[in-house]
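hi support,

uploading two proteins for the ticket. first:
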Amino acid sequence: MTTFSESAVMRFVKGDRPPGSPIIEFKRVVKAYGSRRVLDAVDLVVQRGEVLVILGGSGTGKSVSLRHMNGLEQPDSGEVWVDGVEVSRLPEQELVPVRKKAGMLFQGGALFDSMTVFENIAFALREHTTWSEEQISARVGEVLGFVNLGRDVERLLPSSLSGGMKKRVSLARTVALKPEILLYDEPTTGLDPVTALTINRLIVDLNERLATTSVVVTHDIVSTLFVADRIAFLKDGQFIFIGTPEEAYGSDVPDLRAFLAAGESPE
C-alpha cells in the first residue's frame, strides 16, 4: 500500500473555503519541449465549484496544462497551486494526496485490460483505503450508478465494452475516491454524437451532485458550450481569452472567433 507523510496529508485536508474561491492557480508557468514553449509564462485561476473548459487546437498544450494540475508534469518555472498548496516541486511521495484530490479521466480511459470492471474501480479503493471488501463493493455499485451503469457490468472486461461504456467506467473509477477536482482529457474524442452528449451530461451532473470542480480539455465546441461555466482559450502558449461562453461569442479576439465559427460549420 502506498504511504505518504503525515504533513502531506494534513496540507490536503479539505478546508472550509467558499464556492468561487481559487482552487487551482498557475502563476507564470513555463513549460518547454526543446525550443518550443508550450506554456509561456501563463497565469490561470480555476474557481471552486465551476466547470472550466480549456479550449484550443490540437497540439496547443491543453493536455499539458491539465497534467500540471495533478503533478503528472512539472513546470520549468513558475508555480502551480492546488487548494492553497504549491505542488509543482513536491516529491513523488507527497503527490499522492494531490492525485487523490484531483482525479483525472484520461483520453483513452486507461482501464486495466486484464481486470474486470469491478476490479478496475476497486483497485484505488484497495490501494488507498482500509475499507473492507463489503465497503468497497458498496462503493463500486454506488459510483457505477453515478454514471448510469448497473452492477451487471462489474464482471465484464474492458475489451467487451463500447467506447462510451469505457469512458463511463473510467469516470466511475475516477470518482470512487471522492476527489474534489475532476480533470477530463478530451472526454468526447472518438465518440458518436449521442454518446458524447451522454458524457457531457455526466460532466455537468457529477459536478453538481458531487460538489466538485471540473477542468475539461477539449477542442469540441459543442461539448464546450454544453458544459462550460467559463472558457480558457489557449493559443501559442498563452491563454488569450478567459471568460464565459457568452463573453466568448462577444469577444473581439480573432483566433477565438475563428475557432468558434469553425466548430459550428458543417463538415
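and the second one:
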Amino acid sequence: MTLQGKVALVTGASRGIGRAIALGLAAEGARIAINYVSRPDAAAEVRQTLQAMGSDGLPVQADVAVATDVARMVAQVLEHYGHIDVLVHNAALHRGRRVQRLPEADWDTVLNSCLKGAYHCCQHVVPHMSARRSGRIITISSFVGLIGWPGDTAYGAAKAGLIGFTRSLAKEVAAYGITANVVVPGYIPTDMTAALTPKNVDDMLGLIPLGRAGTPEEVAEVVTFLATRAAYVTGAVYVVDGGLSL
C-alpha cells in the first residue's frame, strides 16, 4: 500500500472517473477527500464504499469554479487530515453545441469548471505542498483536447488548456519536489456521455483501434501509477484512449 498515511484530494469524486480514481487511490492506502458539487448522496456512497475497503473518506462540497469554495475546501481538508499529498483535478462540466449556437454562458461554465478550477485548486494546494517539499498533481484532460470534436469547442479548449497549464505547472513546482502530469481519457461511458445516441456510440467505437470503450477503472490505474510510482515523471501526458487519438 504505497499511499499509506497519504491524503488525496480528488475533485469531482462522487461519480464516474473521479469515483474510480478515489477508490483506486484508497486501495493503495490513501485517505480521500471526496469533492462534490451537488450530489451529497453520491459522495456519501463513495465514503461508505471507502469505509468498506478499510479506508477513510471526507466528503467536501465545493464548486471548483468558485475561488472561495476552493479556499474553504482546502482549509477543511487540511483541518481534518493535516496535509494533502495528492491532488487530482478531475471536475469538469460539459456543454456541447456548434460554436455559432453556443451561448457565452455555456462557454464560461465549461472553461470555469475545468480550466479555472485547476487554477483555483493548484493556487491553494501548491503552497502547502511546496512547504512540505513533496506532492503529486494529476489533471484529467480528454481526447477532445488533443484531436477536437464537432460541437465541443468549449470542452476542447478547456481540456487542451489543461494540458498547457499542467506542463507549465510542472516546471514551476519541480524544485519543490512536486510532480504534475496529465491523464487523457478517451471514450469512457459515464453520466457525461449518457446523452450520446446509439449511432453516436457506434461511430465513436468505429474510430477506436482497440474496438471498445474504456472503463473508469482503466483511467484510475494510470492515475494511481502517477500518484505512487512515477517519481521521475513530470510534465507528461498519458493518453488512455484505446488509440482513438492516433
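thanks. also noticed: The longest helix spans residues 104-132.
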